[in-house]
Amino acid sequence: MIHAVLRDPRLRQPRWWALLFLGGCLAYATTSLLPLGPWPFFLVAAAWLLAAYLFRWGAPRQPRPPKSVIPWSLVPLLLWWLYVYLAASFGIVDLGAIYFHLQAGMTDHGGASRIVAAIVSTLCALLIVVAFTWLVRNDHRWRLFERILALILLASNPLLHGITQRSAAIVADDGAWLDRRYVEPVIHSAPDTPPNLLFIYIESIERTYADRERFGDAYADFDVIGEQGKVFEGVRQIDNTGWTMAGMIASQCGSPLMPAGLLHDRQFEPLDDVVPGVTCLGDLLSEQGYRQSYLGGASKVFAGKGLFYYGHGFDSVYGREELVPRMEDPEYLNSWGLYDDTLFDFVHEEIRELAAGDAPWNLTTLTIGGHAPHGHPAQRCLDRQGEFDGVDILYSVECNAWLTRELLNDLSDEGLLDNTLVVIASDHLTMRVSVWDELIAGPRDNTFMLLGNDLEPQRIERESSMVDLFPTILEAMGFEIHQHRAGLGASLLSPVQTLLERHQIELINTKLREERELQLRLWDGLAPTARQQQDAGLSEEEEQLPPVM
């Protein structure tokens, strides 16, 4: 029977092979972009094939001779396919992230699965070119329609829409709206005994996972940790804070990360410094005499992490390159680098060394366990939680939460967290994972909690963003800062309103796309002159953000 079907001469014709492939690509694109599960794939594929059969695409009843033409819509089709690949891989297509990583460096990344997906997507793109070109050349109706299709594809592509929006900043009436609200970070006074700081970034593990109805007990250990300190709810993700370096810079420098190449003469030249024009947490603590270390399981070269931390007051920066030679089993690695159980062992060891000195210390670390799409659960979690199916991100979230709780317990038992503020924060909201549809079903917010340094346990719900972490951490450490603000952030321990309490997130994101002066400040240390501020017409009300009533 199968042999007879395969011998059907119609299946040996290029027409149906081309139509089947194009229909499959259309169905895949629909499934990737719509949060409706897998069923649209079969519906769209069936609808496409039915239309192809009824209208005899590729074999019209009154055929005309094939014509060797190059379809106008090939480039628009490929641009849409690029958008589908990015959306399927990351969930949200962030042009800022693309620009920044092109400049800061994408070598030594751990996205091996992304490379495979990119290769497959590229091969599919080549086949799309072949299949669609055959269809246009052999069906004169498609030769007429595809010119209109080219315009439709160009006008509807979100990728091109985003590029157009960012380009609009060049001619925007006001490109300094955010920069006028920027407050230079200044410490007016410090506590007699400055506390140490342990800053743990939990990769992609947003507070949204705390919803037990949707995600069970995956976040339970973080809930237990939060019972001992202040937990902040409502930390939203504004544009240009949605990837690791952007989240770190927002939370430590009080500004979204606006890549240097968008409106800058450097374009895509490699970076020598990362946001050298602004004062960040590491700069302020360095002035206060802190010894500072960064430890991460991934390469410090990727995305400019090493450049950022060395350039902003850190004494030591350890990544995969430095830590792997110190491991007992150098083969115990994931595609990015160290598993979190190994990383936390090194964190514990580094804190012992820092605590042995006379100076206050700041240790910042970044886990990798929750990284999309599936996470990288450590062996200690496999021993505790059982076999990992390789897909369920909630397994990895639970693993990271348990490892973080164990680390804090071990440090506390050893007395290493005395006079120490512990910060636990997600670097950004997660990208596309196995529970993506559940995550995007409602409002999402980042993890942010503070423990130690005599802070009373409390849950604080305020509309805020990652830029507000910077001044909040400074005040939680006992430092007095100017107007309770630093950068674009406002301390969540003060009554001063945040940007998101004064303005809708849509407005802030719109202003980010139009901003020029803040970008210049980030990369060149340039600020608008008094004359520019006067011309922009900043009102007295805008200059002083009033406190919450």
UniProtKB/TrEMBL annotation:
Cellular component aspect of the GO annotation: plasma membrane
Localisation per UniProt entry: Cell membrane
Domain Sulfatase N-terminal, residue spans: 268-478
InterPro entries registered for this protein in UniProt: Alkaline_phosphatase_core_sf (IPR017850), OpgB/LTA_synthase_biosynth (IPR050448), Sulfatase_N (IPR000917)
Membrane-spanning parts: 16-34, 40-59, 80-102, 114-136, 148-164
Gene3D superfamilies: Alkaline Phosphatase, subunit A
Origin organism lineage: Bacteria, Pseudomonadati, Pseudomonadota, Gammaproteobacteria, Oceanospirillales
Gene Ontology terms, MF aspect: transferase activity
Keywords: Cell membrane, Membrane, Transferase, Transmembrane, Transmembrane helix
Organism in which the protein naturally occurs: Franzmannia pantelleriensis
Pfam families for the chain: Sulfatase
Membrane disposition: Multi-pass membrane protein
Name of the protein in question: Phosphoglycerol transferase
Origin: domain of life: Bacteria
